[in-house]
Amino acid sequence: MENKINKLTEQNTLTVALAGNPNCGKTTLFNALTGLKYKVANYPGVTVEKKKGKLCLLEFNDASLLDLPGIYSLVGTSIDEKIATALLKGELKDEKVPDCIVAVIDSSNLERNLYLVTQLIDLGIPLILALNMQDLAQKKGIIIQAEILSKLLDLPVVSIVANKAQGLDFLRSEISKSLSNKKTSAKKLAWREFLEAKDEDYGAEATARYQYISDIIKKCCVQKNTNNNSIEDKFDRLSTHKIWGTLLFISIMSFFFQAIYLWSEVPMNMIDSLIQWLSKNAAAMLPNGELESLIVDGVIAGVGNVLVFIPQIALLFFFLGILEDTGYLARAAFLMDRIMRPFGLQGRSFIPLLNSFGCAIPGIMSSRTIPSRADRLATILVAPLMSCSARLPVYTVLIAAFIPNEHIYGIISLPGICMLAMYLLGIIGAAIIAWALKLSVLRGKPAIFLMELPSMHLPSMKNILREVLDRALTFIQSAGTTILACSIILWAMASYPKAPADYKDNPVKYSIAGRIGTAMEPVIKPLGFNWEIGVGILASFAAREVFISSLSTVYNLASEDDDNSTLIETLKQKKSDGSFSTASAISLMIFYVFACQCMSTLAICKKETGSWGWTAFMFIYMTTLAYICSLIFYQTASTL
Amino acid sequence: MIESIIVILIIFFAAVYMIRKIRKGNSAACSNCKCKK
């Protein structure tokens, strides 16, 4: 009953939809009008599903605003485009036709943006034109006379700069007017007459529409100067060049990984010292016993050792943010198309794959922009091979403990190189798997890659820092919930049943976790892993970072003294006494590069592919690949 | 005795939390994903 009432209320709510070409600033406008903080970036295809928010208008309290994925026309080919076109045409079951559409226009590219507008006029829904990125258009010498455009199209036209919140009050008042008078453009009829004189096929229609748009632009638009050799044009040529572009891309990525490793060292040490202090004080304050062990060896060791990685996570997203916001990412996608094509993938796959360096889940979701099902499936299946930020703590701990902190030629740090190697290994693995998939189960040539290069501009530090803060807070939230719960459960599993007094081996081995680890040992021993690592691998299926917390807990419980040394120190000790070799550590990193140790990734794979078969395939192939690669490495390294 | 009860309660709540997460279907709650927003 309550659901029915909610549905009825929703049906009666006034809805305003934001429609427009990809990367014209719809989500930026949506965030500015609703106060929400959805992800924005300077490349097409960031929004892949519809989003709803409350629109604050003086006259209408209960209006809602819809942000739709970008479309070039009302003929959608990819999944994200189909969502937008179906909603605008009223073909979505759960959504009514919007009461008003705000067509967001990239003013620096009026002609192409108006193509969609002519189609939106035909829908017969009240329409408002929001001329966004006016500042950018003016920089390019484009002046649009909004009043003339408004008269020509018989539509309200508002000039805005969404990222600077300029013109939003006027837009709000125009939305209110449109919702009240429900006026549609009279050009709809005139347009029909215009078309009837021509053939009604799609090609002729597109030509006729562009002819119509061209006439409009001549009357309302002034182009002052056209400099075809601007700095941006020169950079475009360099960044998309076969050799120079590739070299630039490699240099940028190498710098980022070096910086992530080096710049995070000081803040990481500070957090580490804080956790050490906390651990010592907790141990001193609490009486010796189960509760003290749970807090010190379980909670602080588990959660604290993961929290140490906040600076690295923040730096990773800071650099990704710079790449996204400047517009370089789209250029890299164009460059990658050439490289990825022999492996059966196309440039459109690059952005989902690059997103997966943050987390595979948004990466897999952004594959919705790929129209070809075979290409999309191949991208989904290889996306988790990109080293996500959850793998970062695992790599960092193992590199810090086992790889000497030396510099090659005094500049390039060996740990940084090792970190980059792990990321490259994932990329190479993904290329090979994609190639194998496209040769076998997902046959078919990759579709032609067409992508609009967004304008290059200085990154918005406000946007990037907001994204970094958001990611850091999400990481802390995860540490305080999932990782905390996992650490407590793991502490219990590693503590009970208690070993008898005459038990001479490691007391943790007697516990449930120890017994599970010992049972796993024959399978994982050929990879160079012992039972303690087995426990970590099993626990980290909940989230990869749990590996760090579980290993900390297991080692802390096993240590007889109360020195509360960090995991890195413990691992260094194990390296020196020979119980954990460098070969085992590298083998473990290789295992984490390829293994599908993430339940959420499997859940999103099922959702996006709609098939348990592909989900099972992903899990099986990734686990097998991880096992085989680690096995080959460890066995080869052991014989050398 | 009280200490044991506290420890058991903490473990119980942690287990309940994880079971609820798993039943929700987004168990692992990938630390960096904002897909649920």
Helix content, binned percent of chain A = 55-70%
Q: Biggest interface between protein chains, with counts per chain? A: A-B, 43 and 24 residues
Major sheet of chain A: size, sense and barrel closure?
Answer: 6 strands, mixed
Major sheet of chain B, described briefly? none
Radius of gyration of chain A: 28 Å
Average residue-wise pLDDT of chain A: 86
**Principal-axis shape of chain B:** rod-shaped
Number of strands of chain A: 10
- Average of the residue pLDDT scores of chain B: 72
Sheet/helix structural class of chain B: mainly alpha
Instruction: Indicate the proportion of strand residues of chain A.
Output: 5-15%
Number of helices of chain A: 28
Write structural notes for this entry.
The complex is a heterodimer of chains A (640) and B (37). By secondary structure, chain A is of the alpha/beta class. Chain A contains 28 helices and 10 strands. In chain A, the strands form 3 sheets. A 6-stranded mixed β-sheet of chain A has the order 2-3-1-4-5-7, sandwiched between helices. Chain A has a two-stranded antiparallel ribbon with strand order 6-8. In chain A, strands 9-10 form a two-stranded antiparallel sheet. In chain A, helix 19 (392-402) runs antiparallel to helix 26. Chain A is elongated, with a radius of gyration of 28 Å. The termini of chain A are far apart. The mean pLDDT of chain A is 86. Chain B is mainly alpha-helical. Chain B has one helix at residues 2-24. The longest helix of chain B has 23 residues, at 2-24.
